[in-house]
Amino acid sequence: MCEQQSISRTADVERIAASAVSKRMSDLEAMVKTPLFLRSQKGLDMTPAAHDLLKHARIVLRDLGQLENDMLDHSKGRRGDVRPARLAILRSPSTFPAIWPISWG
């Protein structure tokens, strides 16, 4: 809907009835308790709340995709156990400590 800016175009893309798109939109607005779109004869404009929702939804979807990839890696044995390194803390000339791995446990 955000990309199409139109209920009818969204319905065409999703291959569902425009009334179903409108209902989903209304249900989502009721769930978040704020308007997400300004409706006009020209189409839909996203409210600031819709921009925030879209930003967070994209992050969640990206993270879910990464989670799926990580779990697939585990299931295929492409990820192993992580062993902590033994570290030595050394003073550098600038007096900030430098941390160097000295051996792998």
How would you summarize the topology of this molecule?
Layout: H1 7-14, H2 18-32, E1 37-40, E2 43-46, H3 48-75, E3 85-91, E4 97-104
Antiparallel strand pairs: 1-2, 3-4
Task: Tell me what the structure shows.
This protein is α+β, with helices and mostly antiparallel strands and 105 residues long. 49% of the residues lie in helices and 22% in strands. The protein has three helices and four strands. Strands 1-2 form a two-stranded antiparallel sheet. α1 crosses α2. The chain is elongated, with a radius of gyration of 25 Å. The chain starts with 6 loop residues before the first helix and ends with a strand. The C terminus is likely disordered.
Concise account of the structure shown:
With 105 residues, this protein is an alpha+beta fold. Helix content is 49%, strand content 22%.
Low-pLDDT runs of 5+ residues are 95-105
Q: How large is the radius of gyration?
A: 25 Å
N- and C-termini, Cα separation: 52 Å
In spatial order, strands of the major sheet run 1-2
As a percent range, the share of strand residues is 15-25%
Mean pLDDT score: 79
Name the overall outline.
elongated
Helix-strand pattern, N to C?
HHEEHEE
Helicity, as a percent range: 40-55%
Structural class: alpha+beta
How many E-type strands? 4
Biggest β-sheet description:
2 strands, antiparallel
Tally of helical segments? 3
List keywords for this structure.
alpha+beta, 4 strands, elongated, two-stranded antiparallel ribbon, single chain, 105 residues
